[in-house]
Amino acid sequence: MVDLKTKKILVTGGRGFFGSYVVEALQTHEVPPAQISAPSFSELNLIQWEDCVKAVKSIDIVIHLAAAVGGIGANKAHPGKFVYENAMMGLQLMEAARQAGVEKFVAIGTVCEYPKVTPVPFKEEDLWNGPLDENTGPYGHAKRLVLIQGQGYRREYGFNAIHLLPTNLYGPRDHFEGDNSHVIPGLIKKVVDAKESGASYIEAWGTGKPSREFIYAEDAAQGVVRATERYDKPEPVNLGSGEETSINTLLETICRLVGFGGEIRWDTAKPDGQPRRSLDVSRAEQEFGFKATTQFEEGLKRTIDWYIANRT
Predict the structure, then answer these.
(1) How confident is the model over 140-197, as pLDDT tens digits?
(2) Which residues of 15-26 are buried (b: 16+ CB within 10 A; e: fewer)?
(3) CA dihedral defined by 42, 47, 49, 51, rounded to 10 degrees?
(4) 3-class SS at 276?
(5) What does the alpha-carbon distance between residue 99 and residue 88 come to, in Å, rounded to a whole number?
(6) Best label site of 52, 100, 273, 290, fewest CB within 10 Å?
């Protein structure tokens, strides 16, 4: 077990949505703020090799969260950007960390690394059993490269790299940008806007039939920190809630919590994405004692309340 209180820790993306929760989780584990480095993109551009070298100087542990991300709309619009920027950041940062003698590299992957059609619940052993979803595949492949790199570096150099696979994150501080957002913030914005404008209906992408698993960002951050402390194996590990929810049920729940009583119209010309997503989360509990605790509806309510209070 790593004593994080004695380590200098780099959290890339530490000023972003999920990264801010990871920084807070480190502090709940008694890591002094002065030992946590969370540079902004304007300070260090990890697509540039020289900035990767600067980022890991005098660092003991890297938690790599920085990424080019977005919902299904953003993935469809920017497949080149997503594969290039995510691959370059991960591959270069890990190499810089290896050269600098960093003790541990925690790579945050994505559920998009799983094949489009995967038996539910997704087990880590299923990761390579088929092609990825055509919409999110470039992003998923970029993250897979970092997994392969970490396993190769462990075998060749003895480098301690681990790889975590969080499912869809949500919570306060997320990015509420409509169709380019991830599904929960995008739908919350759509429903709140419709209620306030007096609209009689909302339109949503796809059919509503696909399922997703969601994990509250604060819970997932505790999982990342527990893995940083306690997990040192090459096999990837799922981080999730273990609860599967259809997009239709999700949207109906948001409408109820917001108080919007209008019609839901599904735009079936838009893609659904992966048919089902639900993770087998047993490995995380067995290996480092992590289990999500926030109930989904309670997490949704906190997220909606935060958005309404902070959107200006």
Answers:
(1) 999 999 999 999 999 999 999 999 999 999 999 999 976 667 899 999 999 999 999 9
(2) bbbbbbbbbebb
(3) 20
(4) coil
(5) 16
(6) 100
> What residue ranges in the chain does DSSP mark as E strands?
9-12, 36-37, 61-64, 104-108, 161-166, 168-170, 201-205, 211-216, 237-239, 244-246, 263-267
Whole-model pTM?
Answer: 0.94
pLDDT at 274 over 90: no
Can you tell me the distance from the alpha carbon of 171 to that of 302, in angstroms, rounded to the nearest whole number? 7
The question of whether 84 is a catalytic residue gets the answer no
Topology (CATH) of 4-173+213-244+276-294? Rossmann fold (3.40.50)
With CA atoms as reference, report the closest residue to 88 among 40, 138, 43.
Answer: 138
Catalytic annotation, pick one of 21, 84, 114, 139: 139
CA distance 147 to 163: 6
Two tokens at 173?
């501080």
| Structure tokens that stand for 263 in this block | 């019609």
| pLDDT of res. 179 | 62
Q: Which of 163, 248, 169 has its CA nearest to residue 205?
A: 248
Q: Helix %, strand %, coil % for the chain, to 5?
A: 45, 15, 40
Matching residue, tokens 């273990």 = 242
Determine the Cα–Cα distance for residues 270 and 254; give it in Å rounded to an integer. 21
Q: Token pair of 60, please? A: 């003991």
CA 75 from chain centre, in angstroms, equals: 14
Enter the tokens of residue 195. Answer: 């209620």
Strands 244-246 and 211-216: antiparallel
- Is 272:183 a contact under the CB 8 Å cutoff? no
Give residue 69's pLDDT: 80
